[in-house]
């Protein structure tokens, strides 16, 4: 069995605490930290990029290395031109060497959306410390990008993550 496989099967997927580490830009009061709080009825509770000129991004730093399995995006209570029509998510143990975990888009509605992230290489789970969200296209042409709320979930149990770290660093 792959390193950490037996323990991983018994480990629960849970919310993974993170902090905002780096960002490309932000507009006015739409600070990156706003994505930490889910307030779907507050139009100001979001990160908004200062432009739609690439690259725009947010880099999240997990409290500790984890197997990041899912990302959930919360949204405003109504459709919004700044919602992400296309985006990519990258992850890795450092900012310079990240793997693409997801390429997708959000529906332009008010429902939270959860996506499964790539978290295995050749059937082996790999750890991440950093997650980078890269908006590519908003629903309104030439509008800046907004992210309202982000939740990461996965496994951060050291008994599971450490064997994966050992495998990954070989």
TrEMBL record:
InterPro entries per record: CTLH_complex_component (IPR052456), Galactose-bd-like_sf (IPR008979), Muskelin_N (IPR010565)
A GO-annotated cellular component: cytoplasm
Domain Muskelin N-terminal intervals: 12-169
Keyword tags: Kelch repeat, Repeat
Family matches, as Gene3D superfamilies: Galactose-binding domain-like
Protein name: Muskelin 1
